[in-house]
Design goal:
Helices cover 26% and strands 41% of the residues. By secondary structure, it is α+β, with helices and mostly antiparallel strands. It has one domain: Alpha-D-Glucose-1,6-Bisphosphate, Chain A, domain 4 (2-Layer Sandwich), CATH 3.30.530.20. The strands form two sheets. Strands 1, 2, 3, 4, 5, 6, 7, 8, 10 and 11 form a ten-stranded mixed sheet that branches. It has a two-stranded antiparallel ribbon with strand order 9-12. The radius of gyration is 16 Å and the shape is globular.
């Protein structure tokens, strides 16, 4: 088990990585799924043998409230159907923490429940916010869970210039689920999970 990292350089590196992903040209992405709430693209990841996914959709709410629902905190468990538990293991400051969370089984339990330990950081970006994270090898793996690993991930949320009550939410996700899994099952699950994330979030913000 690794010791906890120094948060400041890790947060800075993580932000820079996400900003770089955000500048990748449209031509490098391939559409993986399209719904009324979001479009999901993917491209080969530079971090591991799977894909980097990009999801994007317009959400009817202000940036701060949307990010409050996404970043570690009490809201997330209430509405995210994939997340089954979450606890904050360490807090560095109000925008930076280490959290452990578990996810439900997917695809009729072909993908068994997973556990993740992530460093999470939320910061300003342009007129909005960026909340991002990366997994750490920290803490004991609990029984009945496979420990997954999130390579640099994050959500950019910025207000629409011509409609301030709406925000453009763009996510970059690259999750290594680990364990014995067919890659095709993982790819199917990831595209659907990201599209569902938008519809679940929109319902939660209306309540």
């Amino acid at each position: 088990m690794d010791p906890l990292p120094n948060p400041a350089p890790l947060a800075s590196k993580l932000r820079n990585t996400l900003v770089r992903y955000h500048s990748i040209g449209d031509g490098e992405w391939r559409v993986a799924k399209k719904t009324k709430d979001a479009t999901v693209w993917r491209k080969p990841s530079e971090e591991f043998s799977g894909y980097l996914y990009k999801a994007q959709g317009v959400v009817e709410d202000v940036t701060n409230r949307i990010v409050d629902h996404i970043c570690p905190g009490p809201y997330r468990l209430d509405w995210d159907s994939l997340m089954t538990s979450m606890d904050i293991m360490e807090t560095f400051d109000e925008n930076c923490c280490v959290m452990r969370y578990t996810t439900a089984g997917q695809l009729w339990n072909i993908i068994a429940p997973r556990e993740f330990v992530d460093f999470s950081y939320t910061t300003s970006y342009e007129d909005g916010l960026l909340t991002c994270g990366i997994s750490l090898d920290y803490g004991e793996v609990r029984p009945n869970f496979v420990r997954g690993f999130n390579h640099p991930c994050g959500w950019f949320c910025v207000p629409l210039k011509d409609s301030p009550g709406h925000s453009l939410l763009t996510g970059y996700i690259q999750t290594e689920l680990r364990g014995m899994l067919p890659q095709s099952a993982v790819d199917t699950a990831m595209s659907s999970t990201l599209a569902n994330f938008y519809s679940d979030l929109k319902k939660a913000l209306k309540t």
